[in-house]
Each structure stands twice: as structure tokens, then as C-alpha cells.
Amino acid sequence: MANATIQDLQVSKIFADPDQPRKQFDPDALIRLAESMITSGQRVPISVTRDGKRFKIIDGERRFQAAQRGGIKTLQAIVELEVKDRFEAQIVSNYCREPHTIPEACAAVDRLMVDGRTQMEIGRLFGRSQGWVSTCKKLWDKLRPEVMEMISANKRSENPLALSVAVMIADMPRNKQLTMANRVKKMTAEKGRAYLAKSPHLKRRARTPQPAEIKNSITVSADIIWARVSVLMGMSRNTFNQAIGSMRKSERNIVIDTLLGAAKDLAALAATAKKVK
Predict the structure, then answer these.
(1) CATH second-level architecture of 89-197?
(2) Tens digits of per-residue pLDDT, 165-184?
């Protein structure tokens, strides 16, 4: 921590980072935290960086808000002089305590992708799969904001929209999304998915091949490739060059077409293999 000092700062000189990925805080939990800080003291310093005459929070907004609610005048803070990857640090810090809501996660995923992060890198930050990251990006790009706010990990929310249901609604035209969300939000996730599956507004996606079908496709593709190149594979490089050189143009074209066909089959085989989980 060579680039940091520990100081007691006035709460009035501290402010929240407007780019903080977490936007929702449980008021009851903040009250309990304030009571704990009043009776037992501040156990963990917050982290801040200097911004003019004030200090912007890097980590510790819950403690900051609790201090405001409890009338606490000063907070112990680690003042970092140089901060890199602040947004990523806030994500990791938040997830160590309580996961973001889906809307918060979707907004964070979008920002990280705009900043050049890959889905795999983002997944590591959140401790989630690449598929989860892809789903967040899809919801951010396709879902109406009003429907996005209906997806909530907040237990106080009435009839929160299940994530699996929201993913289906994202595949509908935007002018139909809010209507459909209001129709299914009081249903269980299972009933909501069943209801949406019958909607004419749902864009049908291609059926996912079953493992046995994928295996059979790979076997067939491999057989085709073997049949195309087995003769050529038996030749040495010199023999192959001599054979090509002595061929008439029409014969040479046949060999070229065979190799190009094998290349296409290899590409098809690779695409099929990618579907295997």
C-alpha cells in the first residue's frame, strides 16, 4: 500500500462515486450497520481517492451511508493516491459482500465490454460463467428499461420478474415487452415461461441439437474428410509435388477442389464441435 495513507476524514468531505456499479442498498441493513458502528466502532476502513478538496469513495459506500444515517462525523479511510481499474475493484468488492441486482450487473457488463473486456474476463470478475455474462449483455441491449427494473434480487420488491422469464421477453419486439411483463410478473417462473412460449410475439430460436445428434454429426464430418484426403495423405511431399506437376489442368483442379472441400468440412466439424458443452 505504498501509494496510500490512512486518515480520519470528516463524513461531510466524502462523496459516493456516481459510477459505482451498485445502486440499491437495503435501508434496514444500513440501520443495523449504523448501530454496529456506533456501539462497536468502525472495524474496516473505507477506501477513497482525493478529488479536489473532497474524497471519492472507491470501496465502502455502505459504511458511508450507514455513517450518514447514524450521525457519525468521521470515518477512517485509506486514501489511495493512484487508482487503476477502480470500476473492476468496486465490482469485486461488492460481490464479496452481496451480489448486485440484475439491472446493476447488466449495466456493469455493458460498461466493461465497452472498455474492451472480454466476456471471459468479465465472468472472472463476477465469479460467473461466460453464459451469464452473455445473458446480461443481451438483456441490456434488448430489454426495455421499465422491464429491466422489474428484474430484481431485492426481496422487498413485489412480484419481481424471474431472470429466465425476462430473457424470453427480451426476444420479443420492444413495443410488446412491457405488456407481456405485466401479464406474467405475478406468475411463477415456470408458468410465466409456459405462457410466453405460446405468444406469437416470441422470436423462435433454433432448437439446440442433442448430444447424440452432435456426436453423429462429428462422426459423419470426420468420415467425409477422411474419404477426401486419404489418398493424398499417403504421398510424401515430393511425390505430391511431382504428381501435381505432371497432372493436366483439369486433373489438378480436381485435387484443388478436393482440398477446398476438405477445408470446408473441417470448418463445419469445428463449428459442430463448439456446440459440445
Answers:
(1) Orthogonal Bundle (1.10)
(2) 888 899 899 898 999 998 88
